[in-house]
Design brief:
Helix content is about 20%, strand content about 30%. By secondary structure, the chain is an alpha+beta fold. It has a single domain (about 10-90), classed as SH3 type barrels. Strands 1-6-2-3-4-5 form a six-stranded antiparallel beta sheet. Strand 4 and strand 5 (about 75-80) form a beta hairpin. The longest helix has 10 residues, at about 40-50. It starts with 8 loop residues before the first helix and ends with a strand.
């Protein structure tokens, strides 16, 4: 499993592919690919242990507090502050 990349704030947006957004901005049912996170190394390790790995595909189940995402067959509740710190690329946009 590849680790969630821990990016400095400056590199977080500058290295993002076109169309990348914060996880917290997606709508329920929307699918996205994980790009990175502006979180500490410990938090990134915890996300990896929960299944949120580099370039994994996730589905938004609920927005708000908590933000609930599904990765493979697992649903994970994330604090909004954590969801704000995760950068994803929405799938099927347009």
């Amino acid at each position: 499993m590849a680790a969630v990349p821990h990016l400095s704030f400056a590199k977080w947006f500058s290295s993002a592919p076109a169309g990348a957004v914060r996880l917290s901005t997606l709508a329920p049912g929307q699918m996205a690919t994980l790009h990175g996170a502006h979180l500490g190394a410990h938090d990134c390790a915890l996300l990896n242990a929960l299944g949120l790995t580099d370039r994994c595909v996730l589905r938004i189940c609920k927005v708000g507090e908590p933000c609930i995402v599904q990765v493979r067959a697992t649903r994970i509740g994330l604090a909004r502050s954590v969801a704000d710190s995760i950068l994803v690329v929405p799938q099927g946009a347009g």
